[in-house]
Amino acid sequence: MSAADIKTAGPEVSVPRAPDGDGPAPSAPRKSGRANGPLLPYLLIAPAVVAIAAVFVWPLIKTVIMSFQDVGRRELWSGDAADWVGFEQFTNILGDGEFYDVVWRTVLFMVVCVVATLAIGLFLAHAMQRMSKGVRLLLTGALIAAWSLPLLVATSIFRWFADSDYGVANMVLTKYLGFDFQGHNWWLDPKQGFLMIGAVVVWGAIPFVAVTLYAALTQVPSELEEAAKLDGAGRLGVFRYVTWPVIKPVFQMVATLSVIWDFNVFGQVFLMRGNKPEKEYNLLGLYSYEKAFESNSFSQGAAIALITVLLLSGVAVYYLRQLLKIGEVE
Asked: How crowded is residue 266: how many other Cβ atoms within 10 Å of its Cβ?
């Protein structure tokens, strides 16, 4: 069969040409069977948004409303409408000298705990870099186990450490270090008491800080460290000019979280003092709890909680900015 026979054997099929006539026109894109509309991402995150609103947003709104009312035990249990008092709760709190003592105590306690946590956590992170794989895995497991320990168990252990009769702290200081701490009561002096409470807070926060900073240190290029050493830089110089710029965003994020957590310490003080902390151990969280449940002034407790949120709002904004910067770098 000749080429002419092949050409005339069937009907001629027209082939679409490109606008410039050089070749066939591109085929039309196939429509996907799935509906990828613009609302799909919002539908996927809708359950999480609803859960966050129910757990965080609605209680915050109720706290704001209560802080401008006079809610007592009767209104709370009966459901009766409370009287609106405007800014009276805030003026009473801000006019109380005890409130400023509590704020100063809270800030000082937070600063000491954050500095100790970051220093020990960074030291452990550097040490983990120089450990063998087996020792590092063992230490990581111990840190995670300490971090996952329930707060009630941790505080019970540290209460036993600080016990005046059978405490480990008194035994070690007396028997091995030569101090006379036999029968010493750590809770008579609030400074010593906060030392024990701070130990619980720092002990519980170190695992997160150490593991997070270790992960950041693994991202530091070893070639840059070796080049800095060849150029004559010491350990401090290598850390300042090579290591620190890499881990700085993660360090700032961890520090910001530590500030928020340690500023809101409640359970450690409450449990270490047997659910009845003295006024000398009042931090902002305990001060709000005392006003709400012991003085039966739930509106004052809500106002103190709202003031605490306002005090931490700047830290929260800084934390969000750090997250956005890390996202832009990635």
From this structure: 15
Chain centroid to CA 4: 81
Beta strands in the chain (DSSP E): 69-70, 83-84
Residue pLDDT tens, the chain, 330 long: 444 444 444 445 454 555 555 555 555 555 544 545 788 888 889 998 898 888 888 888 888 988 898 887 777 777 677 888 889 889 989 988 899 999 999 999 999 999 999 999 999 999 998 899 999 999 999 999 988 889 999 999 999 999 888 889 999 999 888 888 888 999 999 999 999 999 999 999 999 999 999 999 998 888 888 888 888 888 888 888 888 988 988 898 899 899 999 999 999 999 998 888 888 999 999 999 988 887 778 888 889 989 998 888 888 787 777 777 765 545
Q: How many residues in total does the chain contain? A: 330
| C-alpha 133: how far from chain center | 28
C-beta separation of 49 from 288 below 8 A: no
Residue 7, both tokens? 């050409």
Torsion of the alpha carbons at 19, 22, 24 and 29, rounded to the nearest 10: -50
The Cα-based distances of 21 to 15, 16, 18, 24 in angstroms read 11, 9, 5, 8
- Separation of alpha carbons 116 and 122, rounded Å: 10
Are the beta carbons of 169 and 162 closer than 8 angstroms? yes
Reported pTM: 0.80
Q: Which residues contact 99 (CB under 8 A, 6 or more apart)?
A: 93, 287, 304
Q: Which secondary-structure segment (H or E) carries 229?
A: helix 222-230
